[in-house]
Please model this.
Amino acid sequence: MGNDTIILSAALTGTWAAKAQNPALPVTPEEIAHAAVESWREGAAVVHVHVRDDEGRMSCDLARFRRVKELIRSQKCDVIINFSTSGGAGRVNEGERFNSLDAGPELASLDAGSINFNERVFLNSPDFLEELARRMQAANVKPEIEVFDSGMVGNALALTQKGLIKPPLWWQFVLGVKGGAPAAARSLLHLADCLPAGSLWSVCAVGLHQLPMNVMAIAMGGHARTGMEDNLYYRRGELASSNAQLVARLARISRECGREPATPAEARRILGIASGDRSDAR
Model:
């Protein structure tokens, strides 16, 4: 595929936002799966999934990851499922963060370094990252390399030099988090320039910066992530009605710029993902 094709991702719920902030935020497995299917119908090739417990708090429960996947596939939805391994950015122990890999996603997040994340320390030590990359490789799960600042690019490249991450490398630039790179044009240009040849990159940004950074990615030939994990609003003062609403807008803008949203099958070819779900380690 040429750069006229764009991979759109939808980050559905995250770990921080609550229904009290936006009642449309999906938190149960049923709501998350419904949001995934609706986002796919509007043009998302990838859904990035966190899960929540019965009180709506972040969770690393394997059964919940499995349930979300089962519900998505029961709708005959072939969207690429990307499970989080972040553990809520420092809110659980390292061991729990591996749980989602056992549910058999095609993609999973690999947060490529430590950062002061808002009021927490999000710790990703070299030893942990190497173990996470090894487990992803053993499970045949492609890493989505999450980059919050430019030093994390070097951390990930060290793993590629050890043969633990295979090309094509898939990067997700996360901009505007307190403690990370600002959501600004200069940040995106710098990060894109840091990548080795043949890399594929996407960008997401928090709050009101989401749409401008997405539009920059469209113009630059990159890929883009939207969704209620990163932003609860459609526009200033107007809450988003759903993840699908945010995806539909981004798909429309992409098409206006001559870039057709990739289907999941096309995205798999671009990313070098073999078709079909990974085995569930049940």
In short: The first helix runs from residue 29 to 41. DSSP finds nine helices and 16 strands in the chain.
